[in-house]
């Protein structure tokens, strides 16, 4: 599994970045992780904020961790094991994490290394402009991540 890791502080825009990337990728199927550790189909146009999702794009499966594992209080290893138990073959992962994981037993960077290859670790900061979605910083961030996902999955 190849993955992109988006790192930032509490309000840096990790989930907002992942939401914009996922919407631009235009998934045909979106499933959200439920409290009972299964995935349920949801409307593909939902906002990808502070949760774990499986999205499908042209037959490729992407694990999306829009809320940092520490924010969701579930380790990335457990999220991947849930997918394995449910026989979901992950082709790619898009994962957010807090800059500093201060909760014991959370080490997202090293956990991910056990499952795949990091193609990009992007440290982001909050875009300070009022209309941030129109800023060059924002546009280039989203374009860079989308291009890497599409190229890697040959979409």
Written description of the protein model:
This protein has helices spanning 14-25, 69-72, 76-85, 108-113, 136-153, and strands spanning 2-8, 29-33, 39-42, 52-57, 60-65, 92-98, 117-123. The protein is α/β, with parallel strands linked by helices and 155 residues long. Strands 3-2-4-5-6-1-7 form a seven-stranded mixed sheet. Helix 1 packs across helix 5. The longest helix is centred in the last third of the chain and has 18 residues, at 136-153. It is globular.
Key terms for this structure?
single chain; seven-stranded mixed β-sheet; about 25% strand; 7 strands; alpha/beta; about 160 residues
Summarize the structure.
With 155 residues, the protein is of the alpha/beta class. It has helices at 14-25, 69-72, 76-85, 108-113, 136-153, and strands at residues 2-8, 29-33, 39-42, 52-57, 60-65, 92-98, 117-123.
Topology:
Blueprint: E1 2-8, H1 14-25, E2 29-33, E3 39-42, E4 52-57, E5 60-65, H2 69-72, H3 76-85, E6 92-98, H4 108-113, E7 117-123, H5 136-153
Parallel strand pairs: 1-6, 1-7, 5-6
Antiparallel strand pairs: 2-3, 2-4, 4-5
Helix pairs in contact: 1-5
Silhouette: globular
Tell me the number of helical segments per DSSP (H or I, 4 or more residues long): 5
Q: Output the structural class.
A: alpha/beta
Distance between the termini: 16 Å
Report the radius of gyration as a whole number of Å.
14 Å
Q: Record the strand order, biggest sheet.
A: 3-2-4-5-6-1-7
Mean pLDDT: 93
How many E strands?
7
> Which bin fits the share of residues in helices?
25-40%
Beta-strand content: 25-35%
Write the H/E string, N to C: EHEEEEHHEHEH
């Amino acid at each position: 599994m190849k993955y992109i890791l988006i790192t930032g502080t509490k309000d840096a825009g990790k989930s907002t970045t992942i939401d914009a990337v996922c919407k631009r990728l235009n998934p045909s199927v979106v499933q959200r992780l439920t409290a009972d550790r299964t995935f349920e189909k949801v409307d593909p146009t939902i906002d990808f904020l502070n949760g774990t999702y499986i999205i499908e794009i042209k037959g490729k499966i992407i694990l999306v961790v829009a809320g940092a594992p520490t924010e969701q209080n579930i380790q990335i290893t457990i999220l991947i094991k849930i997918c394995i138990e449910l026989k979901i073959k992950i082709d790619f992962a898009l994962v957010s994490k807090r800059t500093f994981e201060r909760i014991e037993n959370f080490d997202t960077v090293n956990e991910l290394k056990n499952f795949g290859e990091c193609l990009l670790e992007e440290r982001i900061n909050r875009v300070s402009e009022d209309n941030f979605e129109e800023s060059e910083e924002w546009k280039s961030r989203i374009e860079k991540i989308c291009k890497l996902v599409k190229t890697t999955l040959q979409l």
